[in-house]
Write a structure and sequence with these properties.
With about 325 residues, the chain is α/β, with parallel strands linked by helices. The protein contains 11 helices and 14 strands. Helix 4 (about 110-120) packs parallel to helix 6 and helix 6 (about 155-165) runs parallel beside helix 7 (about 185-195). It is globular and about 70 Å long.
């Protein structure tokens, strides 16, 4: 009997591990795939990122999971409910913040918060406690009497997040919440998100900023509707074939042209005032590339092996996919 009880407990634990399950999800518009048979899962209590450039399928995926758009194929469950048949029920168990959240610009910050708290049915004590905590995390405590329409773009986004979180949902879906937001507001955003993990909230966030992927516990890299990889940022970078060299130079553009199509280099990524070179064997490549650059008369500050970035992983994956499709 104890053995059966343990088996049932293990089954129940496994069922509850993932709050989102996606299997072969697809959506097309005018015959063009926007989301092409993607599969991934999101665990309870984690920050999971859907990462990729515009047109990758992030927003379409998010809208399907939020129950505002029906899939053409595949299946997905959110908080244990099927998005195709139980979308309306699922909506009551999550909070969805689209790219343009519906703030009321004529209302003040405090009035917007009270309005959404009333919609979500939370009492005044819970509202005031949550509001104080979220306003402090967002650095907006002194702006509670300001009309929403008079806030900056970044502050409007932060207010939208506060309103979406005022009832402490089990799951929150955030569609590019930091798009066009200043760096300071982006930091505030992520401070709020990390604070939610302590309360057991699960967060699914989409972003086109590849550096933000580093802030997620796991990410799915999307390109043209297809899933390239899904793993932790650390494992994705560790599994990058070969290695990455960084070269800093005031001639970065000319260097990129000179090194293009070099057999030692599988890909080149422009990064600020330098380049990232993806190579098969960094230790062997460094002296050979140095000799080539010195012979050609290029000036550069340094050429060294570095830890790959998510951008390096993404671009290398896209290039390899292009070669395989060709």
């Amino acid at each position: 009997m104890n053995g059966q009880a343990n088996i049932q407990a293990n089954i129940q634990t496994n069922i509850q591990t993932n709050i989102i399950e996606v299997e072969g999800l697809s959506k097309s518009f005018a015959g063009v795939p926007a989301v092409d048979r993607i599969s991934f899962s999101v665990r309870k209590g984690e920050i999971f990122g859907l990462v990729g450039p515009d047109g990758a399928g992030k927003t379409t995926t998010m809208r399907m999971l939020a129950g505002v758009m029906s899939p053409d194929g595949g299946r997905a469950t959110v908080v244990g409910l099927d998005i195709a048949t139980e979308a309306e029920t699922a909506k009551h168990k999550l909070s969805y913040m689209p790219q343009r959240f519906g703030l009321y610009e004529e209302l003040t910050v405090a009035e917007n918060i009270r309005f959404y708290a009333k919609i979500f049915g939370i009492d005044s004590q819970e509202r005031d406690e949550n509001s104080a905590r979220l306003l402090a995390a967002a650095g907006m405590g002194e702006f509670v009497k300001r009309q929403a329409g008079k806030l900056s773009g970044g502050m409007k986004q932060k207010l939208g997040l506060i309103c979406a979180l005022i009832h402490t949902p089990e799951l929150i879906l955030l569609d590019e919440p930091t798009n066009g937001v200043d760096p300071s507001s982006r930091r505030d955003f992520w401070r709020i998100l990390y604070s939610l993990l302590e309360k057991g909230v699960t967060i699914l966030v989409t972003t086109a900023y590849l550096d933000e992927a580093e802030r997620c516990q796991r990410i799915a890299l999307l390109h043209e509707g297809r899933l390239l990889f899904c793993d932790t940022p650390a494992r994705l970078k560790a599994n990058l074939a070969g290695g990455v060299l960084a070269i800093v130079s005031n001639q970065a553009r000319e260097l990129g042209k000179f090194l293009a199509n070099n057999e030692l280099i599988s890909n080149i990524v422009t990064v600020g005032d330098g380049l990232h070179l993806i190579v098969e064997n960094p230790d062997e490549a460094i002296p050979k590339i140095e000799r080539m650059l010195d012979t050609a008369g290029f000036s550069y500050e340094k050429l060294e092996k570095i830890t790959p970035t998510i951008e390096d992983v993404f671009i290398e994956a896209v290039v390899k996919r292009g070669h395989s499709n060709g």
